[in-house]
Amino acid sequence: MGRVCSLSKIVSFSSPPGGRWYFYSSAWACLSSRFQAQPGSSSRSYANVAENAQNVGFIGLGNMGSHMAFNLLKAGHTLCVYDRNDAAVLSLVDKGASKADSPREVAEQSDVIITMLPASSHVEEVYTGSNGLLRSSRDLRPSLLIDSSTIDPQTSRVVAAKVSTCRLSTNARRIGFETPIMLDAPVSGGVGGASAASLTFMVGGPEKGLKAALPLLHAMGKRVVHCGGAGTGSAAKVCNNLAMAISMAGVSEAFALGQRLGIDALTLSNIFNSSSARCWSSDTYNPVPGVMENVPASRNYVGGFSCQLLGKDLGLALMAAKETGSPIPLTTQVHELYANICQKGYSHEDFSNIFQRLYQGEPLHTEDKEHTKDPLVDNT
Ligand code: NAD
């Protein structure tokens, strides 16, 4: 017997000032669980099965986008994909997507578009380039365009404004919009979150656009935060990554100093994680090889979030600070540190490599592990 899915409501909870969290305990989650692929089954079994399935176009099938697109297929949506890397396209076609030869062709076949591209220039090209999404004709078929790339807030606003000047074509799926809507919806959660469909989306743009996007966002993530108007999702992401980079550098500096003062990294992380230095860089993504399993530090900094992409995000923060006249001395410094690491040839490694590549920290030694296995702790 199949599970019975009741139609659920969008529930919004007030969040701290300025934002709103959306949790969509939905029929979509239910549908998605019904249409998981069986090993070896025809990939086509994903598509065209979910009630209310949408024709989704996905552009940018890299480390993040490939997983996000696959999760949409698993949720029952029909997917048309484009990437300039043919191998990335073929991998999704194998799983049941159809392929297009340009963003323009994707737009002609899709009701909703999602882009997941490296940087602002790629987003501009894909939207407004000679074969771009907005060049299909004067009138657009997609009524909703969602950009999940991490780009500068100003580009998000400019592209959203261009989208809003387009008209919807006669074959557009009408979902209550007069003109197409663009959302900036960058993500946090990394490749692991993209694969596990547990991303957090930070969304800028009109609320009605966000509500229409929720079933798709929840096929790829767990939490959606509405940040405000166009560009505010990108702004939130830039601020998040600025703080993340500074905290990673700070934790790495402290651990390297601690080692030289004779404190092993496991003991120090036990202390940090129950003290005022506790943070994500210490308790979830520790940069010292051997302190945690399943983090890039414990696999030679392979995978994860590259120094190159972080450098790009810090550049976005510098640009935004210049535009707004904001002092950001720490960002300036940490941007230089990562530029230095990239110049040394480590740009593709995970950014927690700063612990070794800059601070020359040591991996955790086996004897340190033994020493801290059963520490004498007085909790009184
Ligand atoms: P990636 O470099 O692995 O993938 C980008 C994809 O875009 C590639 O497949 C590339 O071929 C394609 N592409 C580039 N230009 C194109 C064009 N003009 N037309 C079509 N395809 C094009 O990058 P990623 O790691 O998937 O990251 C994507 C975005 O998500 C970035 O903005 C990044 O900052 C952000 N992000 C990444 C992570 C992470 O952990 N990797 C986490 C959060 C956010």
Automatic annotation (TrEMBL):
User: What chemistry does it catalyse, as a reaction equation?
Assistant: 3-hydroxy-2-methylpropanoate + NAD(+) = 2-methyl-3-oxopropanoate + NADH + H(+)
Its EC number(s)? 1.1.1.31
Cite the 6-phosphogluconate dehydrogenase NADP-binding domain residue spans from the record: 55-228
Which cellular component appears as one GO term in the record?
A: mitochondrion
Output the InterPro entries linked to this UniProt entry.
3-OH-isobutyrate_DH-rel_CS, 6-PGluconate_DH-like_C_sf, 6PGD_dom2, 6PGDH_NADP-bd, HIBADH, HIBADH-like_NADP-bd, NAD(P)-bd_dom_sf
Xref: Pfam families: NAD_binding_11, NAD_binding_2
Q: Give GO terms for biological process.
A: branched-chain amino acid catabolic process
Subcellular localization? Mitochondrion
Gene3D superfamilies xref list: N-(1-d-carboxylethyl)-l-norvaline Dehydrogenase, domain 2, NAD(P)-binding Rossmann-like Domain
Which UniProt key words apply to this protein?
Branched-chain amino acid catabolism, Mitochondrion, NAD, Oxidoreductase, Transit peptide
**First-listed, main subcellular location of the protein, grouped into a coarse class:** mitochondrion
Q: Locate the 3-hydroxyisobutyrate dehydrogenase-like NAD-binding domain: which residues?
A: 231-356
Q: Under which pathway is this protein filed?
A: Amino-acid degradation; L-valine degradation
Q: Which domain of life is it from?
A: Eukaryota
The GO terms describing molecular function are:
3-hydroxyisobutyrate dehydrogenase activity
Assigned protein family: Belongs to the HIBADH-related family. 3-hydroxyisobutyrate dehydrogenase subfamily.
Q: What is this protein called?
A: 3-hydroxyisobutyrate dehydrogenase
State the organism named in the record.
Answer: Riccia fluitans
